[in-house]
């Protein structure tokens, strides 16, 4: 990849930022749309699409190390200027950290963590939660999506820092986690000491305490594992990982989600020597389609055709996801669509879902985020792929009268949700359907002896 390509992409995302002030809530979609465009399997309903899209992938690309370094002009540690001050008694804005940690800040800004409060999908869920359960119960949402409320208690979300979502200072003020205390698992210390993975680092702006916790999955577990008041595991990513071969082999969340890429931990004018690598702070998951495509595979393993019955054998494998596939929100699901074609015409069809389905006390299936977090009382079914699982699927088709057939199998990732849309006409909640292709296979078939 040449330097020009990286530079062009950085410029794209910059010009987009200007355009998207009003449409900040669209962040989530603009990224998704750019991905969809590339793969051309989108279904978008009821959504006003802003022009263009923020390109995340190039910034993510380790080969774009140069781009990571091409950050806006430094202001922080410039000669003659005093270093920016951290708040000694409360949270400090990520903008202050970003004056020195420019490369990390630029990447973090585009992450779902940085947009965990502002993105339109969360905004819709949060609004629904307030309408359905009231403000008191909906405080729960903020403890993960705007976690600085855990100190200061800005549950009305009036302060700018709260809107920064999962901000630098929240993560880097954590000195311990107590998973045995699920109601309040995070231990943090505010002020001028920052905790992190580096050894022997020194900073003009803050004290540094080295902490191994930052390299372990337990750090992420405080938000990525959640049992609600009814004891239902609404989010089980950490638990799924914990009982997998990845945990056994010591492969942590960070090893897959925060790989080392070329870049500077702080800008050149703050510190001249640098390890030359940083941990990628975009922390992407299933929104990075390429990641999903590498992790999940699909194969037509064969077929059996006896008189008028055909059995199709398929294999779907979770090869590279360190937890179930899909994981996290129960609304994230995958579907395998199998079609039987005779001379191009469909004569049979099946859908096999990979999902965890939750219901409330009365047995009603829950389809929305706010409902699962608060009302889930039971898991109805769980057909997701376990870590490393290879699932063999056998599909029978009957009454087949043909001499030649083609079977197609397509695996899709789906997310059906809502988003808060803000424009000249005001605020409203619109349905959003997302669907993208993970893998697709085709196989021709004929009866025995033909
Ligand atoms: C005046 C510049 C400056 C500012 C402002 C600043 N830092 Fe730093 N920080 C540094 C320097 C220099 C290092 C050492 C980097 C190195 O050695 O590679 C550092 C290191 C760190 C580390 C690594 C610690 C470790 O042991 O892994 C973390 C985490 C960190 N900073 C977080 C923050 C956060 C969060 C903020 C904002 C609240 C912030 N920094 C603001 C200059 C700054
Ligand atoms: C072996 C590599 C690996 C490890 C270890 C790993 N992940 Fe993942 N993760 C993936 C891949 C690949 C995907 C995309 C496929 C998917 O959604 O499962 C993913 C997806 C995700 C998603 C997005 C889910 C969604 O549907 O949007 C979250 C959240 C996540 N991981 C969190 C974690 C956490 C937290 C840990 C540690 C407890 C962890 N991961 C450990 C590889 C890994
Ligand atoms: C979701 C929590 C989280 C957020 C938000 C976050 N970090 Fe980090 N950061 C980590 C973890 C975890 C590591 C260590 C990863 C590893 O070593 O595998 C890390 C590492 C670092 C390091 C050490 C150098 C490196 O690349 O490993 C610095 C400096 C740092 N972060 C600064 C920041 C700044 C500045 C921000 C905001 C712009 C920020 N972080 C946001 C979790 C976070
Ligand atoms: C303070 C809570 C918190 C912590 C700590 C945290 N996360 Fe998250 N994470 C979230 C929330 C909330 C979201 C969803 C944001 C949104 O989309 O609104 C998220 C999103 C993600 C996603 C993106 C999923 C996707 O669909 O693409 C991944 C991957 C992820 N986190 C991994 C991690 C890893 C790895 C760590 C530990 C280094 C970590 N998180 C620490 C709360 C947290
Ligand atoms: C224990 C932490 C936690 C709590 C509490 C929590 N969330 Fe989340 N939320 C997450 C994480 C982590 C994700 C990332 C998705 C995943 O893992 O698949 C997420 C994702 C979401 C998303 C999808 C956002 C996107 O960008 O795709 C919505 C909507 C959402 N949460 C709404 C809510 C609502 C509404 C509440 C309160 C009723 C709530 N959440 C409470 C951690 C939490």
Short description:
The protein is of the alpha+beta class and 450 residues long.
Main traits of this protein?
450 residues; alpha+beta; Immunoglobulin-like; 3-stranded antiparallel β-sheet; 16 helices; 28% strand; globular; disordered N terminus; binds heme C
Helix/strand layout:
Elements: H1 3-19, H2 27-39, H3 57-60, H4 65-69, H5 94-100, H6 102-109, H7 120-133, H8 135-145, H9 160-163, H10 168-171, E1 174-177, E2 186-188, E3 193-196, E4 207-210, H11 218-224, E5 226-227, E6 233-235, H12 237-242, H13 245-248, H14 253-257, E7 260-262, E8 277-279, H15 289-295, E9 296-306, E10 309-318, E11 332-342, E12 345-354, E13 356-359, H16 369-375, E14 378-382, E15 390-397, E16 405-423, E17 426-445
Parallel strand pairs: 3-4
Antiparallel strand pairs: 1-2, 5-6, 7-8, 9-10, 10-15, 11-12, 11-16, 13-14, 16-17
Helix pairs in contact: 5-6, 7-8, 7-16
This protein binds heme C (HEC) (5 copies).
Task: Provide a descriptive summary of the structure in words.
The protein is of the alpha+beta class and 450 residues long. It has 2 domains: 3-279, no CATH class; 289-445, Immunoglobulin-like. 27% of the residues lie in helices and 28% in strands. The chain is built from 16 helices and 17 strands. A 4-stranded antiparallel β-sheet has the order 12-11-16-17. A 3-stranded antiparallel β-sheet has the order 9-10-15. The chain has a two-stranded antiparallel ribbon with strand order 1-2. Helix 5 (94-100) packs across helix 6 and helix 7 (120-133) crosses helix 16. The longest helix has 17 residues, at 3-19. The termini are far apart. The model is unreliable at 1-78 (pLDDT under 50). Residues 28, 112, 119, 121-122, 125-126, 129, 138, 140-141, 143-145, 223-224, 226, 235, 237, 328-329, 332, 369-370, 373-374 line the site of one heme C.
